[in-house]
Amino acid sequence: MRWRGHPITERLLGLWVYCDTGIAVAECPDRVCGHCRLPNQPDGHDACLGNIPGVMNACCGHGDPDMAYCQLSDGRLVPLTETTNTPRGRGVGRRVDRVA
Fold first, then answer.
1. Residues 64-80 pLDDT 10s
2. Which of 7, 51, 57, 70 sits a CA distance of 20 to 30 A from 77?
3. Structural domain tally of the chain?
4. Are residues 57 and 94 in the same domain?
5. Inter-CA distances, 43 with 26, 40, 81, 93, Å
6. Is the model's pTM score more than 0.85?
7. What residue numbers bound the domain in which 17 lies?
């Protein structure tokens, strides 16, 4: 199991902790991405994706291309499975400037 690209494990009755530090995920949910090592943008968006017009929320997959998606403003989910370099050269999901 992973949280934002970091391996996590369940300890006591639903307490999830980071495997490398033992710190509870709930105490540090906004840790930098475990894949690209970039922090979220101030508005909470994945740094490698940025703000995408017409998208309600999106996830780069944090190292797992099968988990990358965007949710359009109308509620539809669109997988972002094509692995390419972002302008920063670190992301997993492809950089999207607009969604048709």
1. 888 888 888 898 888 87
2. 7
3. 2
4. yes
5. 19, 8, 24, 19
6. no
7. 1-31
